[in-house]
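Pilot study result, target chain (84 residues):
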Amino acid sequence: SLFEIVIPYGPCCLPPGFIIPQEVPPHSWMKRGVAAPSNRYDIRPGRHWDGVDRSNGFEREMFKYQNLRRVQEQEARMWSMSDM
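Predicted structure:
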């Protein structure tokens, strides 16, 4: 027809769209055997994320603050129950 679009496929042309690599890159945390930095989404390094921390430090400070509050609350609970 007049409006038919022909997309060439073959060894020289890849289909259009975003290509997700299926193999784990050699520089990944998984291949090196080192623990990856924690993140708020609990995403483990793999084919979707190489494990490199490209943040501005917000998540690191957020986790530090959460841990500090958890320890303070637990300590306050222990002190409040010590008189019983």
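One observation from the pilot: The chain has a mean pLDDT of 77. A full batch analysis is planned for the follow-on phase.
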